[in-house]
């Protein structure tokens, strides 16, 4: 039976759904590799169904003279972002490969066009294209929402952070939905203090307007490969996380019950998100010490090969593992942890991919099948929560 999703006339929902895109946040510590736009995809697909509008890309044009890339959608929206080191004419040609992609899948579109996505200033062109895709989605949705979508540019220095939210009805059940864009000027991100349901600044004002500072919420997170959890898997599996005694266990249970009914492979973890002070600060210091060690070795290097080897390791570390400490401010992480989840407010939904998929793609990307699996899980949880 097809789910009925429409815009609601209500000011807020019975529960909340929040999903973000962390532009350039493809890598993290511990060999984690991810598509950090999964939440943006799923929250956006619910809003798009209510609006009945297309976000397919009809133009993706980079200007080598200005360093800007512009993306236009079939629904009439436009997004524009800047790459710190600009675009070569060849990279401008590559950007055109995004035409025909769905801008609602911003990391997948950037990967299709540019091949890979890196943060920390290692891949500004791809990250700028990813940000432009997400901004084009916001512009598309806002234009056709009839004023029912709250669109806020968070106006942070050096950042493109924006949020778009509205209230929809899923089979008559009102739900407050918010999409979050975390991006940095120049394509150098990630910087994700505004991810999840952190009620900061102008984002917090938009959340309050939709009731999201009070509502129990599903925080939709990335599609990821993490060796310890993923290597035993044969197929993709959904993962629910909510720390016992800290997070909203009823939301977590609703997600788990929904996936059980739908026959969706999943695991539910109630001990994987403990609160802890100083964890990210310690990890940041450890990362800095590793870079310091490499720098000291470079100072002492004599041969060309030594210097090249050290430069390669420095590039690998900065472009990959350093993403696990740059993405959030230390003090904020003490409170909301890596997913941006305020205590007592919700649970986190992610997807784990098997090693075989990671070995093929190197960096996971969201697909239409993935979107369907996420959306079935979320819609089922909405029904489970409302019924109880």
Topology summary:
Layout lengths: L4 E3 L7 E8 L10 E3 L2 H14 L5 E6 L5 E6 L4 E5 L6 H7 L10 H9 L9 H21 L5 E4 L8 E9 L2 E10 L18 H10 L6 E9 L1 H4 L6 E5 L7 H14 L3 E4 L9 H22 L3 H16 L3 H4 L3 H7 L9 E7 L2 H7 L6 H20 L1
Parallel strand pairs: 2-9, 2-10, 10-13, 11-12
Antiparallel strand pairs: 1-8, 3-10, 4-5, 5-6, 7-8, 8-9, 11-13
Helix pairs in contact: 1-4, 3-4, 7-13, 8-9
Quick overview:
With 388 residues, this protein is of the alpha/beta class. The chain has 13 helices and 13 strands. α8 (279-300) runs antiparallel to α9 (304-319).
Structure, described:
The protein is of the alpha/beta class and 388 residues long. It folds into two domains: 5-274 and 337-387, no CATH class; 276-336. Helix content is 40%, strand content 20%. It has 13 helices and 13 strands. The strands form two sheets. Strands 1, 2, 3, 7, 8, 9, 10, 11, 12 and 13 form a ten-stranded mixed sheet that branches. Strand 7 and strand 8 form a beta hairpin. The radius of gyration is 20 Å and the shape is globular. The two termini are 22 Å apart. The model has no long low-confidence stretch (mean pLDDT 97).
Largest sheet: 10 strands, mixed
Helix amount, in percent?
25-40%
Helical segment count: 13
Low-confidence stretches: none
**Overall pLDDT, averaged?**
97
Could you state the oligomeric state of the chains shown?
single chain
Shape type: globular
Query: What is the distance, rounded to the nearest whole angstrom, between the alpha carbons of the first and last residues?
Result: 22 Å
What is the count of β-strands?
13
Name the helix and strand elements from N-terminus to C-terminus, one letter apiece.
Answer: EEEHEEEHHHEEEHEHEHEHHHHEHH
Tell me what portion of residues adopts beta-strand conformation.
15-25%
> Rounded to an integer, what's the Rg over CA atoms?
20 Å
Structural category is: alpha/beta
Number of domains: 2
């Amino acid at each position: 039976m097809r789910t009925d999703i429409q815009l609601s006339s209500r000011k807020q929902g019975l529960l909340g759904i929040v999903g973000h895109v962390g532009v350039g946040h493809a890598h993290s510590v511990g060999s984690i590799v991810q598509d950090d736009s999964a939440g943006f995809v799923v929250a956006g697909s619910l809003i798009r169904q209510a609006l009945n509008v297309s976000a397919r890309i009809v133009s993706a044009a980079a200007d080598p003279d200005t360093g800007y890339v512009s993306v236009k959608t079939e629904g009439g929206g436009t997004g524009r972002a800047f790459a710190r080191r600009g675009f070569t004419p060849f990279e401008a040609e590559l950007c055109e490969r995004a035409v025909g992609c769905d801008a609602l899948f911003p990391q997948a579109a950037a990967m299709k066009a540019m091949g890979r996505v890196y943060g920390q200033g290692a891949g500004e062109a791809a990250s700028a294209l990813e940000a432009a895709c997400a901004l084009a989605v916001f512009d598309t949705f806002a234009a056709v929402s009839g004023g029912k979508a709250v669109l806020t540019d968070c106006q942070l220095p050096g950042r493109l952070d924006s949020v778009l939210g509205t209230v929809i009805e899923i089979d008559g059940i009102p739900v407050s939905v918010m999409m979050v864009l975390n991006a940095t000027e120049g394509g150098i991100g990630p910087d994700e203090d505004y991810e999840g349901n952190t009620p900061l600044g102008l984002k917090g004002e938009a959340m309050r307007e939709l009731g999201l500072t009070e509502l129990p919420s599903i925080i939709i997170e990335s599609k990821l490969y993490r060796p310890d959890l993923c290597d035993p898997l044969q197929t993709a599996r959904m993962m629910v996380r909510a720390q016992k005694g800290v997070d909203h266990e009823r939301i977590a249970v609703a997600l788990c019950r929904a996936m059980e009914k739908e026959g969706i492979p999943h695991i539910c973890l109630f001990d994987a998100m403990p609160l802890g002070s100083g964890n990210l600060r310690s990890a940041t210091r450890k990362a800095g010490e590793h870079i310091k060690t490499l720098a000291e070795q470079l100072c002492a290097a004599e041969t060309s090969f030594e210097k090249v080897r050290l430069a390669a390791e420095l590039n690998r570390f900065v472009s990959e593992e350093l993403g696990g400490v740059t993405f959030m401010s230390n003090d904020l992480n003490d409170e909301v942890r890596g997913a941006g989840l305020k205590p007592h407010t919700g649970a986190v939904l992610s997807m784990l991919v098997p090693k075989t998929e990671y070995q093929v793609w190197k960096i996971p990307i969201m697909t239409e099948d993935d979107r369907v699996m996420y959306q079935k899980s979320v819609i089922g949880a909405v029904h489970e929560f409302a019924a109880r």
